[in-house]
Amino acid sequence: MAFNSTSHSPSTQHEDSVPPSTSRKAGGWRAIAYILGNESFEKLASMSLIANLTVYLRTKYNLGGIFLVNVVTIWTGSSNVLSIAGAVVSDAYLGRFLTLLFGSISSLVGMGTIALTAAIPELRPPACHEPSVCEQPRGWQIVVLLLGLLLLAIGAGGIRPCNIAFGADQFDTRTEKGRARLESFFNWWYFSFTIALMIALTGVVYVQTNISWAIGFAIPTVCLACSIIIFLIGRRTYIIRKPQGSIFIDMAKVISASIKKRKVNLRQSSDHTFYSPATDEELEPTKLMLTDRFNCLNKAAVILDSSELDCQGQPTDSWRLCSVQQVEQLKCLVGIVPVWCSAIGCFVVMDQQNTFGNLQGIQMNQFLGPHFKVPPAWMGNTSMLALSFWIFIYQSLYLPTSRKIMKRDARITLKEKIRTGIVMSILCMVMAGIVEKKRRESALKHGSHVSPLSIGFLLPQFVLSGLTEAFAAVAIMEFFTVQMPESMRSIAGAVFFLSLSIGSYLSSLIVNIIHVATGKNGRQPWLGDHDLNKNRLDYYYFIIASLGVINFVYFTFFAGNYVSSKKAITTGGDLQLDNHSISQSRKFSA
């Protein structure tokens, strides 16, 4: 039995969703122009740091070994996990406009701090002329560096969960015209993101590595300042929606109510009354029905006594009584956990190229010809190009050809994509291990710190990393999106970022465990030395590959059962969804 009540009148809900000050001229493409300008400059700035942070810390701060890997991976993970906090603050308190503004300001101050460390020699240790004897940074120098990275992580936490959603707010998706414009916005958003990423990974990274780190970090600092100015100039054109409350808080309430009512036995009686108020169609287009899966959570919606509701039919204690809608939303999230765990395994592999992949490049022959020196961070372009090439082949060649030959839709299912992505992740680590073994042997044979082996030998592992992302990461993002009801689509991005962050933290944990385990009894540990020639990075890669095999078995025989075998998308809008998924996944794996 379900108890129905209406929590708010429709008119009240509409006033909450669109502020009274909003004029009919607000929103639309006029506002999107400013939003895309802000987004492009912000992404150019953030990606230019992400791509080259490992190289900067190694060459200018003389960091190496475990500490360097920990700094990069923990910062990566923190930037992603703070997106969850940013989403809660935005939805429940500040709204998307203010969250984006404060996040951008935090990023600007953080990037400015990093730029100062490059411009002022006293903020970092002296240059390292002999690889074997390098002066380490002082404690206060590390504090300044970490302060800059912390401000950047806080800024990312405010920007990432809000930028796409704020753009979507500018269109009325209740109309066909609004929905069509929203699809165009996603395509333009992805286009601007890709252009910014290409500029960051080529032009800015080249300036940082081969001309000046100070100028190379001043460029993204100026870009962030421009992004804030553009964002504020467009202030009067935006539709700024008021905070509606966070779905994460609702989920916490369901867990709390379930615990408080844990002694309720749902099997003893079928006469339980469940709290199921009417939902506003504008904010909750899909009303979820009560299901038997994860039945223990249903206790949160059971009305045990009439005193649990006030005179208007609202819960007197929302942490003790929740609606069926809230309960089923949490179930949707719980239902993707098996695949989410498998996603973490893929992201551990993708995370290696941002740290150890760049460190390999530093100790390889970087010259292309007698004069041109290839920045190690340029290898990240290879992953992006591999991802984009596959999407082009799949959308423009494979699908049209298969339709003509087979006379039917021959799309690759989500399950097949994820499984293929896991295989690519295994091959990536095996290839990385083989190349590292050859690089190390070549360096030791010639008695040099830098191996004569060309940096071009890193291309296969970066290509395979890009294909891992193209198959697994994009499909996982798509799976999270299609498994959620319409009102929870924004949660998919937050869950995706959380898996990225845990992948980074897990990578750091594995590195530290291997360092301790292999360094016992006075032995040389596999990881930890500033000189990769003294490490056994190849063994580490093979261990990660072994974990990938375990992940493949886990997905094939367990997690894959939670992925529908139906084709992911059957309409003409598939490219838009793929683009959105790709852009989400590339936000931090560049």
From TrEMBL:
Record SUPFAM superfamilies: MFS general substrate transporter
Region named Disordered: 1-25
Intracellular or extracellular location(s): Membrane
Keyword set includes Membrane: yes
MF-aspect GO terms: transmembrane transporter activity
Membrane topology: Multi-pass membrane protein
Top-level taxon of the source organism: Eukaryota
Pfam families given in the database record: PTR2
A single Gene Ontology CC term: membrane
Subcellular location, principal: membrane
InterPro entries with a match to the protein in the record: MFS_trans_sf, POT_fam
Transmembrane regions: 63-85, 97-120, 140-166, 187-207, 213-234, 330-350, 377-397, 418-435, 455-480, 492-519, 539-559
Keyword line: Membrane, Transmembrane, Transmembrane helix
Name listed for the protein in its UniProt record: Major facilitator superfamily (MFS) profile domain-containing protein
Species: Coffea canephora
Lineage: Eukaryota, Viridiplantae, Streptophyta, Embryophyta, Tracheophyta
